[in-house]
Amino acid sequence: MSKLFVVATPIGNLGDMSPRAIATLQEADLILAEDTRVTRKLLTAFDIKTPLESYHQHNEREKAAQVIARMTERGMTVALVSDAGMPAVSDPGALLVDAAHAAGIPVLCVPGPSAMAAALSASGFMEAAFAFYGFLPRKKKELKDSLRALQNGPPLAVIYESPHRVLDLLRAIYEVYPGLTLSVSRELTKLHEHTLRGSAEEMLSYFTQHEEALRGEFALVLRLPQTEEKQPASSVGMEAQLVDLMAQGHTLRDAQAALIAQGQRKNAVYAAALNLKKLAAEQLNAPDA
Questions:
Q1: Angle ∠(99,105,110) on CA atoms, nearest 5
Q2: Which of 93, 113, 133 represents a domain boundary (last residue)?
């Protein structure tokens, strides 16, 4: 009978490769890898000689169909790996796993290193509920919109980012959620592993001043403000707060996001913003004295 194993591999430290993962890869008939060059080095380190084929985001739909057909025709044990961590989590693999389920092929997991889990553990945040978002959009507007949408989810959000774009991400986080607390982990499990925790302003300031720290992959854990725990401000008071933020250079949209991040209820903030727009329109249309 065919089986598909989803196998975790180290995210930076070979010492995290489990005995079960090694045995699974050794005993499989075929290994599917995100990047065969990366995985070949791992296999060589553990003297694993199982046949290796590529399975990545550019060929996964076609490859998944081919592999499932082979597994259906003859009994095969296939192991799926990514470059690092758990396959199918912010990495290729979900299509193959889904196809295996649809074909009635058993799917087994060999768990192990995960940057998401490691970052959560190192953050020290005690909230139990979280959501994993992987990499957010690169464009500034789409990035800010995605950050604002996090407010609708659990209290913790886990995000990945590259060293080349992490400053842009931190800057956007500060603009959308000025008072937010977050944990920033980099080089997880590697020699220069480092986790910092503080306000959005503190994290932006630190990494702006320490360019040498902009190395390796980043995993961020955001502790999002919980608006339901806050008392809403009066509509008039909130309008004044919006005006004050706009006087500091924020757009009306960013000012709304800032108040929501501080714990004000969304409906009250949006109502205050609408009142401001109506007042502005009335002033524009008012006849000259």
A1: 95
A2: 113
Q: What three-state secondary structure class fits 186?
A: strand
Range 19-50 burial, b when 16+ CB lie within 10 A, else e: eebbebbeebbbbbbbebeebeebbeeeebee
Give CA–CA dist 50/36, Å, rounded. 12
Quickly list DSSP for 236-273: HHHHHHHHHHHHTT--HHHHHHHHHHTT--HHHHHHHH
Tell me what pLDDT residue 289 has. 47
Model's pTM, two decimal places?
A: 0.75
118-137: per-residue pLDDT in tens?
A: 999 999 999 999 999 999 99
Q: Domain of residue 264: give its range.
A: 229-285
Contact 140, 187 (CB under 8 A): no
Residue 179: which CATH number? 3.30.950.10
- φ and ψ at residue 205, rounded to 5 degrees: -65, -45
Q: What percent of the chain clears pLDDT 70, i.e. is strictly above it?
A: 94
**Cα(100)–Cα(91) distance, rounded to whole angstroms?**
17
Strand bridging mode 77-81 / 3-7:
parallel
β-partners of residue 134 are: 159
Contact 7, 87 (CB under 8 A): yes
